[in-house]
Design goal:
The protein is an all-alpha fold and 115 residues long. The chain contains six helices and no strands. The longest helix has 44 residues.
């Protein structure tokens, strides 16, 4: 269920929202849904691993274990990309938005045009 919320949020952000709205910064509500979804998936996935994986042999030599390993790798890729967006891209969008607001009052500057 959580993955449907997460995937739906991604579709909403990419298909419904206009790029102009992202220029103001990342939508806060959608960011919170994404963060909470990843936390819930990590907790429920951890519980699944705790109860179903009794040894490393189960994880490495059974079909379930191999699929679970692939699923965990994809989840970690998603979490790392989300961290990249939250730590690097979001502050740059906010910083750029603040500079654009300042430029609106002063007019064009060489620094503003270089951005």
């Amino acid at each position: 269920m959580t993955s449907f919320f997460w995937f739906g949020t991604i579709l909403y952000v990419h298909l419904v929202l206009k790029p102009k709205s992202a220029a103001k910064g990342l939508p806060k509500g959608e960011m919170l849904i994404g963060i909470y979804s990843m936390i819930i998936m990590a907790v429920t996935g951890g519980i699944l691993v705790w109860f179903r994986v009794t040894s490393t042999d189960v994880l490495l030599h059974t079909r379930f274990g191999i699929l679970l390993t692939i699923k965990v790798a994809l989840f970690l890729t998603m979490v790392l990309s989300a961290l990249f967006v939250l730590v690097i891209i979001a502050p740059r969008l906010r910083g750029r938005n603040g500079q654009q607001a300042k430029q609106g009052d002063e007019g064009f500057t060489l620094e503003g045009l270089s951005h």
